[in-house]
Each structure stands twice: as C-alpha cells, then as structure tokens.
Write a structure and sequence with these properties.
180 residues; alpha+beta; two-stranded antiparallel sheet
C-alpha cells in the first residue's frame, strides 16, 4: 500500500508525493520494490489513494506491470489492506500466498524468493510515536500497540512491524482484517 503522502516535514523538500515515490538513489522506493518482486510473483498490486494520478503516471512512464487499486473509503491501514486483498481475490479467486510490502519500506536484507508462508518482518527498536509494536508468544501475535505512546524520557525496546509480510491464507487474513 501507498495510500498516503510523505509526512508533512518532508513535503517542503519533496512536494506532496505518495510515499512510494520517495526518492532512493537514482530512482524511487516503488521502482526498487518492483524490481525486487516482479520476477517472482504473479502480479503486483498497489493500493493508492492520495495523489493516485502521480503513481499512475510514474508506472506508465516506467512501463511497470502494476495494477492500481483505489480504496473506496479513506480509512485505517487495515481498511487499505482489506481493499487491496479484496481486489486480488476478485482477479485471483483461488486466493493463496500474498506478499505485502508497504510503499515506503524497502528491506534489502530480505530475500523475496523466501517470502512464502506466514512471515512477519520485524526489528527491535527504541519506542517512539512512529512505530507499531507487537508482542508474540511462540510465534502467535498476542498484542499490537499502534504508534507507541511511551512518555518522553522513557525508553522501551520492543518488536516493531517494518512493513513487509507474507500471508499464506489470504482469505483468512482478510476475515481477520474485517473483524478488527
């Protein structure tokens, strides 16, 4: 997904662009993500909302085989993911394994060809207001803390989602998103 624009503090330098068009090296994060996955997946979908036309133009100009999905309602990340997965199911009703890579996230140390089954890429990080933390026991998520609210001056270390996932049962995951 790349549903929102880059953060306000970056807009003076970059303008109002979708997060997937953030420059990285001599290209964009979107192009890096496309190069990472295009040869190992059946199709790439991009869920886009704000300034979608910029993504359409970029994808057309670079001749990238990406299907754009426009959410019917602006909402939470969960809603954005649900709309993207629903679009995939419309085109591929058999469901199956899907890889989710946030439009502003590039993990070079993850081998895309090994993204099969249920995989959550995470990191250990100091608490801040910019990360979503989670706790797990024996590989099962037991809690999620959206955008940690740790008081200033206190620091905790926890597992944070870094924006790259593989989901084996896309239909089951979609049902979980709808219930959340």
């Amino acid at each position: 997904p790349s549903a929102i624009l880059v953060p306000p503090e970056m807009r003076n330098q970059l303008g109002e662009i979708p997060s997937a068009l953030f420059p990285l090296g001599k290209t964009t994060i979107l192009e890096h993500i496309y190069k990472k996955y295009h040869s190992i997946v059946d199709e790439i979908y991009l869920v886009a909302c704000e300034k979608k036309f910029l993504l359409e133009d970029y994808i057309s100009w670079k001749k990238m085989g990406i299907s754009l999905v426009a959410p019917t309602t602006a909402g939470t990340l969960g809603n954005t993911l649900a709309e993207g997965i629903s679009a995939i199911h419309k085109d591929h009703p058999e469901g199956g394994n899907i890889i989710i890579n946030f439009g502003d996230t590039l993990l070079n140390d993850i081998d895309a060809e090994q993204m099969h089954g249920d995989v959550i890429c995470y990191a250990e990080h100091m608490s801040s207001n910019e990360w979503t933390f989670f706790e797990e026991t024996d590989g099962v998520l037991i809690s999620v803390s959206d955008k940690s609210k740790t008081p200033i001056g206190k620091s905790v270390t926890g597992k944070i989602f870094v924006g790259t996932f593989s989901i084996l049962d896309s239909y089951g995951f979609l049902e979980c998103l709808k219930k959340a």
